[in-house]
Amino acid sequence: MTISLYAASVPVFKQMLASMSAVLSKAEQHATEKNIDPNALLQARLFPDMFALVRQVQIAADFAKSVSARLAGAEVPSYEDTEQTFAELQARINKTLTFIDTLTPAQIDGHEDREIVLRPGTPKERKFNGQAYLLHYGLPQFFFHATTAYAILRHNGVEIGKRDFMGEY
């Protein structure tokens, strides 16, 4: 049995971005209820050499849009990394969801062998076919940053659990 690249990508990104949005809402509510400066959560990290929550969310959204776009053969939208508030992170997630909603299964399915080149022309250039790009690079990268964002908030006392991470499915 085969599974389509579209089914393994866009709906997964949509589910997890929606759950990330809900988790961020809970974090903002937690900060308000506990009289915590929101920046304490937004700039929190699990270890000094790791990215803070804001950057984790930005990168997760970047992977959702860039992986989806590349699989579809579409141009990857460029977002500036200027978010500093919960509202701005929510807007970034919404912008990403709006973009990936424009992609159709016809643009992605049947292109498992589409060549995807990352960092073209540099010493770090990597070439993948569409399927390998999604399964061995894109999804693991996305889930790393989505999980780290969740872990930062949980570590900082936001009352969230596995159901929050998983979202609606």
Provide a quick synopsis of the model.
The chain is mainly α. The protein has helices spanning 5-33, 38-42, 53-72, 86-100, 105-108, 130-155, 162-166; strands spanning 115-118, 126-129.
Describe the strand arrangement of the main beta sheet, using strand numbers.
Answer: 1-2
Secondary structural class: mainly alpha
Q: End-to-end distance, in Å? A: 21 Å
Question: How confident is the prediction overall: mean pLDDT?
Answer: 96
Sheet with the most strands, sense and barrel status: 2 strands, antiparallel
CATH architecture descriptor: Up-down Bundle
Strand content: under 5%
CATH topology: Four Helix Bundle (Hemerythrin (Met), subunit A)
Cα-atom radius of gyration = 17 Å
Work out the count of structural domains.
1
Number of helices: 7
Relevant CATH superfamily: dinb family like domain
Helix fraction by DSSP (H/I, runs of at least 4): 55-70%
Element order, helices and strands? HHHHHEEHH
CATH class: Mainly Alpha
